[in-house]
Amino acid sequence: MACSLTTSNPSTEVCAPVKPGLDELKHWLVNRKDITFTEGTPGSKVYTSFTMAATTVIYPWNFDKRGFIFTDEMTVDENTGARTFSPTISGRILDLSGDAAKKVEKLINTNLVSIFAAKNGKIIVAGSKGGLDLTVNSTGSASDAFGESISIGSTDEPEKHYQLLMTDLATTLSALVDAETA
């Protein structure tokens, strides 16, 4: 069975198995003003590199695997035909400490980019054009809601999310981990 509707792929191409979900141990947040991405081929939706402002770091944000989700919804303005995208990343930190509360509060009024790995080996970048903001935070002690649950998102991102691929997956992950320290 062919994977594509385009004629550029051979008819013998077999669809790779899809492993759904996100890797809760591979998620980073960064201030949007402090990172610049380079798209390999214009229109490809694949960033092939990034640069950071001096002394800037990417912050690892590990969530519980239950409830760590990403959505990106497009809407069209009925009057103008303009398209906007609404990316949302939601997750839960299994912690009720003051440190966890401070970590969440640092996201208030911060324009963010979220970089995360899907379980199929793709690194996704959300918020690189308009930025993401903390939109929801709830804290709970019940077993199904324990800790700090957050959502970051935007209702006016001008483009869909991008992929980050610097040569290969290992190189990309290494660059992200290296960017955790200035």
Strand order of the largest sheet: 2-3-11-8-7-1-4
Beta percentage is 35-45%
What is the ordering of alpha helices and beta strands? EEEEEEHEEEEEH
Instruction: Count the E strands.
Output: 11
Mean pLDDT: 89
Between the first and last Cα atoms, what is the distance in angstroms? Answer: 47 Å
General description of the model:
- The structure is a single chain.
- 10% of the residues lie in helices and 40% in strands.
- The protein is mainly β.
- Strand 5 (69-76) and strand 6 (83-93) form a beta hairpin.
- The protein is globular and about 45 Å long.
- The termini are far apart.
- The mean pLDDT is 89.
Give a nutshell description of this structure.
The chain has 182 residues and is mainly β. It is built from 2 helices and 11 strands; from the N terminus they run E-E-E-E-E-E-H-E-E-E-E-E-H.
How are the SSEs placed, and which strands pair?
Elements: E1 22-31, E2 35-39, E3 46-52, E4 59-60, E5 69-76, E6 83-93, H1 98-105, E7 112-118, E8 123-126, E9 133-140, E10 147-153, E11 162-164, H2 169-178
Parallel strand pairs: 3-11
Antiparallel strand pairs: 1-4, 1-7, 2-3, 5-6, 6-10, 7-8, 8-11, 9-10
Features:
single chain, mainly beta, seven-stranded mixed sheet, four-stranded antiparallel sheet, 2 helices, 10% helix
